[in-house]
UniProtKB/TrEMBL annotation:
Domain of life: Eukaryota
Protein's UniProt name: Ubiquitin-like modifier-activating enzyme 5
Any GO BP annotation: protein ufmylation
Organism in which the protein naturally occurs: Durio zibethinus (Durian)
Keyword Cell inner membrane: no
Molecular function as annotated in GO: ATP binding; metal ion binding; UFM1 activating enzyme activity
Signal peptide: 1-25
Length: 408
């Protein structure tokens, strides 16, 4: 019995020592260097590649080329990171300085055994197990500090992980922070880098939220239309009361994260319509949407510079867009045959063409069919030969009969 217990202890110690290698070997078995559309249970991308087969996305495999930065790995950011990981995104950059707490267990993604870990480390641990194909970069820092902002800016400019892809940096930044100060930092960085980004948020009462697309120079930046509280000069940090925390529902945050990632996929893969602003009110299931133009008197100098660049480039951009639309329209008209999939060989003929050619409709019916009613265009024709003489004789006969009656 003592020997058996010792063997069990030795086996347990051996498994603990070898667990990192066993996990790495297990991950390698799920590593797919190329996306496959093969419909088998062992292919993690078959359901995603079905979007391409169904014509929703032109080339879904391009998802592996994109880099997305997520700032704030909280209730929205962590779920958005998981969704993008399951979608097969190429690279994720994760930014947060906070640690996982038991108070976070009302949200999705984090687990009790991760309490005490930084949110970035916990996210890397979970996401690498879900999909080892995704390249993960974590930054445990506060972007609102001077050093944190510099690191944030340099990381966004880092060259892409795929040498075959042109350009450098990230393709999209997702802001999932919970305070105005951090949003303004993301806004400043993206304006300076001319970087497109999406902002998201959930209200403190946990029953509403929103997402917003921000393209420097083309749409309003976050400083163009500040919230009323901030515009009034009130420090948002003074609004929080002692012992009172904001409410949070995993349902509301899950809906906002889903809308955020859905629009991210549409933006990157160029399908569907990307909402410039989309709100969500869970109390009435209300989804307001609108578009906001940049403020010519914005307080952000980088935003004003991007606006000038956008206005100067607008004529050339519009001309290129019109030329592209005309080329696509002419190509579509040339490629699509008239009456495609016309099983009954039905054709449409212009009445004027029919009159010019002297064509007439045929009264012939298929074999086995007969007309039950006369044609509406035909009238019964009676012979009129001798009709006038008969009418005169009848009148003379009637006159003689009347004269005879009168004589009596």
């Amino acid at each position: 019995m003592l020997q058996l217990t010792s063997c069990n202890r030795m086996l347990t110690i051996l498994l603990i020592l070898l667990s990192p290698y066993l996990l790495d070997d297990q991950k390698s078995r799920f590593l797919f260097h190329d996306m496959s559309a093969e419909v088998v249970d062992s292919n993690p991308y078959s359901r995603l590649m079905a979007l391409q087969r169904m014509g929703i996305v032109e080339n879904y495999e391009r998802i592996r080329e994109f880099s997305v930065a997520i700032v704030g790995i909280g209730g929205v950011g962590s779920v958005a990171a998981e969704m993008l990981t399951r979608c097969g995104i190429g690279r994720l950059l994760l930014y947060d300085y906070d640690k996982v707490e038991l108070a976070n267990m009302n949200r999705l993604f984090f687990r009790p055994e991760q309490v005490g870990m930084t949110k970035t480390d916990a996210a890397v641990q979970t996401l690498s197990d879900i999909n080892p194909d995704v390249v993960l970069e974590s930054y445990t820092l506060n972007i609102t500090t001077v050093q944190g902002f510099e690191t944030f800016m340099s990381s966004l400019k880092n060259k892409t992980f795929r040498p075959s892809k042109e350009g450098s940096g990230v393709d999209l930044v997702l802001s999932c922070v919970d305070n105005y100060e951090a949003r303004m930092v993301v806004n400043q960085a993206c304006n300076e880098l001319n970087q497109t980004w999406m902002e998201s948020g959930v209200s403190e009462d946990a029953v509403s939220g929103h997402i917003q697309l921000l393209i420097p120079g083309e749409t309003a930046c976050f400083a163009c239309a500040p919230p009323l509280v901030v515009a009034s000069g009130v420090d948002e940090r003074t609004l929080k009361r002692e012992g009172v925390c904001a409410a949070s529902l995993p349902t509301t945050m899950g809906v906002v994260a889903g809308l955020l990632v859905q629009n991210t996929l549409k933006f990157l893969l160029k399908f569907g319509y990307v909402s410039p602003y989309l709100g969500y009110s869970s109390l009435k299931d209300y989804f307001p949407t609108m578009a906001m133009k940049p403020n010519p008197q914005c307080s952000n100098a980088a935003c004003l510079q991007r606006q000038k660049e956008y206005i100067l480039a607008k004529p050339a951009r519009d001309a290129a867009a019109n030329a592209k639309m005309e080329a696509e329209a002419s190509a579509a008209a040339a490629d699509v045959p008239l009456h495609v999939d016309n099983e009954w060989n039905i054709s449409v003929v212009d009445d004027s063409e029919q009159e010019n050619t002297g064509g007439t409709s045929s009264d012939a019916l298929p074999e086995g069919l007969t007309r039950e009613l006369p044609s509406a265009d035909e009238f019964p024709k009676h012979s009129t030969y001798g009709a006038t003489d008969t009418a005169v004789d009848d009148l003379e006969d009637l006159r003689r009969q009347l004269d005879a009656l009168n004589a009596d």
